[in-house]
Design brief:
With about 230 residues, the protein is an alpha+beta fold. About 25% of the residues lie in helices and about 25% in strands.
Length: about 230
């Protein structure tokens, strides 16, 4: 979790930013980064070490291979959109008819209407719902974030996983704890096998995604590396 006055932000949150100020701070960014930010001034909070002033973010371009990792000063942030807020956003029926992932999202909202964990869409579906930019395509997966601040039982994970296996699009469910992220499918299907846990310092194998041992003190890190962990 990263602090951004007056709120805290988490991995997968979308930030509306002051594009001019962020662009001015990106001397080594590819040309498409400036074009993308001027068209749509939104960045995605990614998983990485951070300082109290800088938030690790990713810029999304028009092409699949256009992803840029950098850091955004908290003062550049105008507003925050967390995935659970996007549950209230919709697209036109014509758009939903064209994109299976949007239809899958509508089905899942009905199935999970009583879910006691906060959750919401990420990836291309979340980005399009947040910005109105057409970025999803008929092959897009439905990326979902489930926030499990308390420990999630394996039986609960199995039940949630059962709700997504017959959707009209592939659903990639990421569970986020206060210290890491992991795949719902891996957790639901694993017996005693260690899970791949995504932490601010990289991927590690572990059996307890809620362990205090995984807590990492955020520190600054150079910007401009290849984007990962979104």
């Amino acid at each position: 979790m990263f602090h951004c006055e007056p709120h805290s932000v988490r991995t997968h949150d979308l930030l509306e930013i002051d594009a001019n100020r962020l662009i001015a701070a990106q001397a080594s960014a590819p040309q498409w980064v400036e074009e993308s930010l001027r068209k749509s001034p939104f960045v995605i909070v990614r998983r990485d070490r951070a300082t109290g002033e800088q938030i690790p973010v990713g810029v999304r371009g028009a092409e699949r291979n256009q992803r840029w990792a950098t850091f955004c000063h908290r003062k550049f942030v105008k507003s925050i959109l967390a995935p659970p807020q996007l549950l209230r956003h919709t697209v036109a029926i014509s758009r939903s008819d064209l994109i299976p992932a949007f239809r899958a999202f509508a089905i899942l909202k009905d199935r999970w209407r009583d879910l006691d964990h906060h959750w919401g869409p990420a990836g291309s579906i979340g980005f399009e719902l947040a910005t109105g930019n057409v970025v999803a395509n008929p092959r897009s997966d439905l990326d979902i974030v489930v926030y499990a601040d308390r420990r999630m039982a394996v039986d609960e994970a199995k039940s949630l996983h059962a709700d997504v296996i017959d959707l009209p699009a592939i659903a990639d469910i990421r569970v986020e704890t206060p210290v890491c992220g992991f795949s719902l499918t891996e957790y639901a299907q694993a017996a005693s096998t260690a899970l791949l846990l995504r932490t601010p310092v990289g991927h590690v194998l572990g059996n307890d995604p809620w362990s205090d041992e995984l807590k990492i003190c955020d520190t600054g890190q150079a910007a401009g590396k290849s984007l990962s962990g979104l």
